[in-house]
Amino acid sequence: MSSTFNSHHLEPFKVHILGCGSALPTLRHNASSQVVEVRGKMFMLDCAEGTQMQLRRSKIRFTKLSHVFISHLHGDHCFGLIGMVSTFGLVGRTAPLHVYGPKELGPILDSQIAFFTHDLGFEVKFYPVDPTQHTVVYHDHSVEVLSIPLQHRVPCCGYLIREKATQPHIRPDMMKFYEIPVSQRNNIKKGADWVTSEGETIPNERLVTPADPVRSYAYCSDTRYIDDLWQLLQGVDTLYHESTYGDDHLKQADKYCHSTARQAAIVARQAGVGKLLLGHFSSRYENEEVLLNEAKEEFENCYLTNEMDVFDI
Amino acid sequence: MSSTFNSHHLEPFKVHILGCGSALPTLRHNASSQVVEVRGKMFMLDCAEGTQMQLRRSKIRFTKLSHVFISHLHGDHCFGLIGMVSTFGLVGRTAPLHVYGPKELGPILDSQIAFFTHDLGFEVKFYPVDPTQHTVVYHDHSVEVLSIPLQHRVPCCGYLIREKATQPHIRPDMMKFYEIPVSQRNNIKKGADWVTSEGETIPNERLVTPADPVRSYAYCSDTRYIDDLWQLLQGVDTLYHESTYGDDHLKQADKYCHSTARQAAIVARQAGVGKLLLGHFSSRYENEEVLLNEAKEEFENCYLTNEMDVFDI
User: Fold this and answer.
1) Which of A126, A136, A313, B49 has the fewest CB atoms nearer than 10 Å to its CB?
2) Using one digit for the tens of pLDDT, what is the confidence trace for A129-185?
3) How close, in Å, is residue A245 to chain B by CA atoms?
4) What is the ipTM score, two decimals?
5) Smallest CA–CA separation between A52 and chain B, in Å?
6) What is the largest distance, in Å, between two alpha-carbon atoms of chain A?
7) A82 sits in which H/E element
8) Stretch (H or E) spanning A116
9) Which domains, and CATH codes, for chain B?
10) Which of residues 105-144 of A touch B (CB under 8 A)?
11) What is the CA radius of gyration of chain B?
């Protein structure tokens, strides 16, 4: 019976918060980085200074990290990249590391690798992302990653990480009971009924359990409030939306192209997401509960992030 | 009497350890950086990733830091520089920051500043250092900094920070007692006796207390054992000498141009320094006491460094 149970059990889809402060690292918060665990893969979103230490602290195995997506080229989102690449070299990595980000990152990374590393035992493959486009930047058989155009002081995009639809799950108990040969599994997954040797038709819905729901996570790193952003975020299970400021600094939010916690929550409500994670907190807030409370006035299911937090998506 | 006492009181000369691990940052150690407090100035030696956070943790005021000396261009000694410069910009620094290091650092820093900062409100002045020379790279009225050629896989130098000799201290009580005019103070500091109106000669040594001893600190960041290094370190009060490995990894020390703790202690003994600080520990040592014990077999007065330690020099 345990295999039947397992087929119903969703694979982990989690986000590990490595840093959720804004530009000024403090003793409370590191600058931006997080790792999303999805379908057995580890994708990093942004890579601020100190990320490699946070990665170690989180106990995520370095070798599991395969892809890094950089939202924009402000230091608090990318200064940790060359240090992490160097360390991966020192610990003997051989698997390629795939890095996505605005095109200007390519030559910067190339020149840093050329100057600061020696006999790097793995390839760093760079893929330019056009932050003005909403498009698929990565996909494999089980996951796709799309860019989400944001509005910040420099070209910037968020990322939407979405599972691909799976087929329904075969019920092993039914396969055994009706003695259905393995060769028929694919047909049944695609919806076929089964006709027994006695001529009885067993409807497909008795042979399978439904496909897993398609889950998705959106990361909106740095952005001013965008009134139609919700259109790209509809149906998202978990949204991380920057909330640098509280209502008390609405003007600063506008001036520096950031959002208030309330604005983040308005986007979450408009998009009808499952839950909202708040982060990218300005160092001016000793206590971020004020941000949480303002956000909750617009959208109830929201949470403050903190370093080493892990959220199920 | 308190002013007399104060004139005997030595000004602080301390080293704050911000990071004392080697290339691989661990949960125990950050990579190399330290701040030396001397004659009211704060000089940074190396600036690894995470240094700005360590600086904050150490409660050293950002504005007090005026000079940064980089020993060599391996990431674990300089990757934190651009992040620290960016943060200084964000917090409104206006005073120039003086950066010393191998000449290749200049254009790297320039291009990082041009790309990653915007309207930086202060000047970053770069001074190339020739790591093959033992020469004065900085001096002011009270302190001088000299380069110390080291032998590593890339051009590398340590730094010797030395107080300049002061004049003897005037004894205010004697000045008052003999009614010596202020105009005579400089002559007396330079060694003059005083002749009273009654014709009595007061010898200089009764009018002054001796000049403060000239103290010095040497930082030898990354180097293989150099058998004549002691000649540049004679009379140094406190020596920090890298001790990446223990006796068990003597071959690796040789291969990677690092030193063992024992070799560091041999240099300390040869140079006759006051005390030895061990650091730049390989991440392989869970317990660095083994390094300390091996060093102590050669030179008794030595200490393991640790993040946030502060040593008097």
Assistant:
1) A136
2) 999 999 999 999 999 999 999 999 999 999 999 999 888 999 999 999 999 999 999
3) 16
4) 0.88
5) 8
6) 75
7) helix A81-90
8) helix A105-116
9) 2-166+212-312 (3.60.15.10), 171-209 (no CATH)
10) 108, 115-116, 118
11) 22
